[in-house]
Amino acid sequence: MPETELTTGPEEKSELVFFVNGRKVVDQDADPEMTLLTYLRTKLRLTGAKLGCGEGGCGACTVMVSRYSQAQGKVLHLAVNACLAPICSLHGAAVTTVEGIGSTRTRLHPVQERLAKAHGSQCGFCTPGIVMSMYTLLRNHPCPDMDQLEAAFQGNLCRCTGYRPILEGYKTFTKEFQGCCGGMAGNGCCRNIQNGQAANGHAENGQAANGHAENGQGANGHVANGDTVNGQPNGNAGNGWTEDVSTELFQVSEFRPLDPTQEPIFPPELMKSAGGDQTTLKFVGERVTWIKPATFKEVLELKTKFPQAKLVVGNSEVGVEVKFKNCEYPLIIAPGHLPEINFHRYTEHGITFGAGCTLTYLNDTLTEAIADLPEHQTRLFAAIVEMLRWFAGHQIRNVGCIGGNIVTASPISDLNPIFLSAGCTVTVASHQGGSRVVRMDHDFFPGYRRTAVAPEEVMVSLDVPFTKENEYFLAYKQARRRDDDIAIVNAAFRVRFEEGTNVIRDIGLSFGGMAPTTVMARNTANRLTGLKWDNDLLPEACSSLEDDLPLPPSVPGGMAEFRRTLTTSFFFKFFLSVQQRLNIKDVPPPYRSACSLYHRESPHGSQMYQEVPEGQGREDAVGRPIMHLSALKQVTGEAVYTDDMPPLQGELYVGLVLSKKAHAKILSIDPSAALQMPGVEMFVGAEDVPGSNITGPAVMDEEVFASEKVTCVGQVVGAVLADTQAHAQRAAKSVAVQYEDLEPKIITIEDAILHQSFFHPINKIEKGNLQEAFEKADQIIEGELRIGGQEHFYLETCAAIVVPHGEDGEMEIYCSTQNPAKTQMLAAKALGVPANRVVCRVKRMGGGFGGKETRTCVVSSVCAVAAHKAQRPVRIMLDRDEDMMMIGTRHPFLSRYKVGFMNDGRVVALDISLYNNAGNSLDLSRGVMDRALFHSDGGYTIPNVRAVGYVCKTNTVSNTAFRGFGGPQGLFFAEGWISDVAIKCGISQLKVRELNMNREGDLTHYNMKLERCQMERCWQECVKKSDFHTRRRQVNRFNGENRWKKRGLAAVPTKFGISFTATFLNQAGALVHVYTDGSVLLTHGGTEMGQGLHTKMVQVASRVLRIPTSKIHISETSTNTVPNTSPTAASASSDLNGMAVKLACETILQRLEPYMGKGSWEDWVRAAYFDRVGLSATGFYRTPGLDYDMQKNEGRPFNYFCYGAAVSEVEIDCLTGDHTVLRTDIVMDVGDSLNPAIDIGQIEGAFVQGYGLFTMEEQVYSPDGVLYSRGPGMYKIPGFADIPVQLNVSLLRGAPNDKAIFSSKAVGEPPLFLASSVFFAIKDAVSSARADAGLKGTFRLDSPATAERIRMACQDQFTAQFPAAEPGSFKPWAIRL
User: Which stretches make up the 2Fe-2S ferredoxin-type domain (predicted)?
Assistant: First the structure.
């Protein structure tokens, strides 16, 4: 709305005043469309806060916002999502970012220090947000309890660490940890020092706090007397481990104490202005005007004049609508500060809340009321508080308000069903009509996103009533993830009985997720009124709910049967809970667990690793749990990622034009409208490519820009260059592309099979005589199993900055990529120049996981062409939805298998066909399939095997590498059929696995001999450490005593081959410079994405050169220092680059040998320099002995194997499909660990990522190939509350590996599959539920085991009510790839 149309408010623009990190910021020209995050990063150059999703779903952008509250008379400190906070909303506030609390240049805040030293930061991109969530908690609660600690992170995600080390470091701030002495005494809390024991349970006599003898030893338990690093092993020999085992990865005694009195004060200027600010403020941007009214009367006047204007308090809904739904709101009114809507008061009937009260305020007020009032009065309050536990994250609850939640009218609102069932009333007001009271009943939501509040009306307050003594209220919610997730279905139930009876006087049943609005089951309520609350009521209620809440099979959101089943399952829970309150004897004991509210213990566990040998010198860093080299920079926000680099002069931003069709001919591309928009410089398309538009990482089957047709949704059609990201993205959406649909449109694996759409050749591994083996087998099973794809969800999306140098066609690319060499080569090809004109540089990535191995080249090549055309630097960082549409995922797989086995459980034959959905180009899909074929035997020896792999070509985005690279899929299918073998044979799951398990000297189905096979050791140790057999009996007993809660227990082994399956990639180079001051600059071919590769390489160099790690520095990875590098992938980077670094350092050391007689390292270096000895050396390594031939099925595809085992126990809710991982024990073979802290971090991170793959991460596609799950709102990765309650990780001791650097082993990918132990524990629990329903034998459960799949597999009377519609009788809302 143009400013001239506004005749209210001040004549001129207002001045925006706020503080950032104690510094006053005054802006005369604030843009209402700019978020706080954009302002911090682009205007103030504070890049610590990160953009992870743009919708308040990941927490990477978290900052602390402080305001003085007149009503409460104190300063409020709130954790806020900077990506959603409009900059204009910060007037009068003080913002604190991660840079404002500490730095490496001054000193670290204890919050920063503890996270770093506890190894809680890997890639570091999420770290500033986590730091600020914790910092805000401590500003409000200097000594929080564990519940407050865990709740503080509900709105934060981390993809690397697995969360455990974050909680481990931060629990040192809690009451539970600190006890009475603050926990900072050198030997732990005084409460724990009993009977000569320190806090960690080690005897104090002659021992330090970490349990290692002090006599002649340093605090870390390593020999300190007179040892040097000279003569340390620097080859492949083992470290000579003893049985000395440690469980300490960091020293609590080293932490600086927290002193709350030293925190920055709130700016006095803002405290003074908070009370006297009666001025209307107006901020005007290009498209939006923002008004902050001085009075509530002014709000009503504005709404009368502009009824379509949006009222914004928290911007948690409007911000998402504007960014992702392209909504435009020309006028924003911000009344959140006004006292008329910010209050609460007790009345005779309940509590009245102002509509502007935040959800945090609502929660805190009701929590106080519950503590102060009689229980029967607060049952509704308790239901609201319980629901708010699962409502978004702290950052959203801190700003989202009651009125906004109601008038947004979301059909899956968590609170609106409660308000409807309770019969709450709202007071609304308008300028001309005054105020009126509206009851929230079945008429309150007349349609989708509509309410009974008129456009010119403003909600003033909400009345929340007390409950009566004979009234009961409960609310339920089922989502994809427990914390911070929108509901699939939610429900709120209220029942009131006639005095002294169980006869229903009135009842309210409200549901979300069952219609375009929140709905009430009125017919059911009418039918139940007057009936007794007894067992006869239940079938009547369920039958009526079935009629009241219909859903067609093609309903938006899908899952029709599951959603309908939840309605009756929720009611059953309510029925039992009320029955229990009326008379517990009426509820059978096996049913009572269905009534309990969810409660979870604080996570805990242990990490065990082997200490370095006694004789190892202190300066030899190999084998020690040293901190990630970038950790301190990451916790302070100083670590620089691609988009953190300062803008270059003349820089332009790239906005991508992406295909909206899965398979179509391009008829025309018209950028004319975009070119007329503000800030736009030019459009770039296929005709602008100076070199070749044909590209591809493996084969040349892709285009930089689609030229004649598109073959998937999300394919790059063109790009717009503009002065800002907002301008570029807005203009890109205005480019008009005309299409003509083409057939066939192949989306799923089944579509590809039907049309025989495969990439050739079709590879096969065959061994033995299948026909004969099947004939001799006692039993044969045949089946089909599926595993879905998985989004990488690295917190840093793909980013690039490309700088043309003009001279000789030179181009410099700064890119977030795992593959600098491929980035260089494909950009050079597109530019039509030799590769020596293009340099690619990588400082670090905010996560990669394989997603940045090849698909980032799509982005960097587009930017290279754009930079060439503009002859100016260009920049891009994909929005989360763009990244998810463009980059591809882990491959979805389908398997069809036939297994022959003997009655004792021995498997004699396997015939398996694997199909993966490659997408629209080959990319790395054949390599992924080959690895799946190699791993299709699982950890088992099978004499007769045929494994065939079909790589399906479809009209979806090209899928790509992802941690495990096909291995987890192949292994999963093996565990699936071997589980069924056990059931068919009637023997235990444990026994059938042990019977078929790989052993030393066995031949795999690809004829590779297993040497130094640690499978049995890992397995036996894990079974013993987990106390499997005792817990198996306990689980069986629990399941016998409970009908609606079930537990499951499962053990799973893993064997993972290490090497690139493309043999030529098994090479690496390194470059070492020694400067005359003795400092060392190390460069190698690997990239750092959080996995600690640079840290390990410095440890390797430190050992070989015999100098402290502090003298060695790694700046970046670049193609002009180490050429032709292999991608950082396949878990082989430490092996390959470590050996290259070792060889380069040995060359340097050999040259220095003549000068080593006397003096220090620096003396040797200077002497060599003056003697004109070269102090720079390269190292090159290629893995020996790799020579597999798939046609002949002979040779060695892998250098060695990593082994591991895991045992997991889960508890499922049979009525909702919810589950909790109670405990996981992992034993992992990592050889002689280079760095136990990093390796354990990799194991835990891989496990939690795998847990997401197998239980909750689900891609949702439309039948037309459009990805629905394009952000954290719909795609759920595990959060803090999803990790095992108890997680024990143990590194296998005394298992050196002579085939890798310093006897170590790879660790990045192998542990991921161990998370399938959770999947099979879930399946075990489901089996018990099915047995109670009379269903025996095998059943199919595809991955991921989502709540929907778990619930529908637990077949019972409720699922029987809602049979699935016949396939083909309707068009599904969503499909499975």
Answer: 14-101
Measured CA to CA, the distance from residue 1372 to residue 1377 in angstroms comes to 13
- Cα–Cα distance measured from residue 134 to residue 394, given in angstroms and rounded to the nearest whole number: 11
Q: Which one of 702, 703, 1309, 1348 is the catalytic residue?
A: 1309
DSSP letter at 516 equals S
Which residues are documented as binding site for [2Fe-2S] cluster? Answer: 53, 58, 61, 83, 123, 126, 158, 160
Query: How deeply is 240 buried, as exposed, middle or buried, from its count of CB atoms within 10 A (0-12, 13-18, 19+)?
Result: middle
Closest by CA position to 1032, among listed 1049, 1011, 1010: 1049
Instruction: Give the integer Cα–Cα distance in Å for 693 and 706.
Output: 9
- Under DSSP, the state recorded for 1278 is -
1168-1222 tens-digit pLDDT: 999 999 999 999 999 999 999 999 999 999 999 999 999 999 999 999 999 999 9
Stretch (H or E) spanning 895: strand 893-901
Cβ neighbours of residue 899 closer than 8 Å, sequence gap 6 or more: 780, 781, 782, 907, 909, 910, 911, 977, 980, 981
Give the residue ranges of the annotated binding site for Mo-molybdopterin.
818, 849, 963, 1130
Instruction: Please report the pLDDT score of residue 9 as a whole number.
Output: 56
Residue 6, sorted as left (phi over 0), alpha (psi -120 to 50) or beta, turns out to be beta
Which residues are paired to 504 by β-bridges?
Answer: 497
Give yes or no for a contact between 1298 and 616, defined as CB atoms under 8 angstroms apart.
no
Question: Hey, what's the torsion of the CAs at 1203, 850, 1247, 1257, to 10 degrees?
Answer: -140
β-sheet with 434-439: strand ranges across: 344-346, 350-354, 458-465, 425-430, 434-439
The predicted pLDDT at position 588 comes to 93
Neighbouring CB atoms inside 10 A of 836's CB total 13
Specify which residues 491 forms β-bridges with. Answer: 476, 511
**Distance from chain centroid for Cα 1357:** 36
Active site (annotated) includes residue 1309: yes
- What was the pLDDT predicted at 955? 98
User: Which parts of the chain register pLDDT below 70?
Assistant: 1-11, 180-243, 275-277
**Binding site for substrate: residue ranges?**
853, 931, 965, 1061
d(CA 974, CA 979): 9
> Which DSSP letter does residue 223 get?
B
The contacts of residue 372 (CB under 8 Å, 6+ apart) are: none
> Which phi and psi (to 5°) does residue 1036 adopt?
-60, -40
Instruction: Return the pLDDT at 125.
Output: 98
Consecutive H or E run containing 507 = strand 504-512
341: DSSP letter = G
Query: 1331's torsion region: left (phi>0), alpha (psi -120 to 50) or beta?
Result: alpha
**In terms of Cα–Cα distance, which of 642, 535, 517 is closest to 579?**
535
Amino acid at 589: P
- Binding-site residues for FAD: 311-318, 391, 414, 477
What residues contact 360, with CB distance under 8 A and at least 6 apart? 78, 394, 397, 398
Identity of the amino acid at 1237 = A
874-877 and 652-658 strand pairing: parallel
CB of 141 within 8 A of CB of 364?
no
Secondary structure (3-state) at 925: helix
The position carrying tokens 């409200």 is 510
Distance, CA of 70 to CA of 1264 (rounded, Å): 54
pLDDT of residue 178: 84
Phi, psi of 908 (to 5 degrees): -115, -15
Would the CA dihedral through 715, 721, 722, 724 be positive or negative? positive
What pLDDT is recorded for position 209?
A: 31
Place of tokens 């660790």: 1307
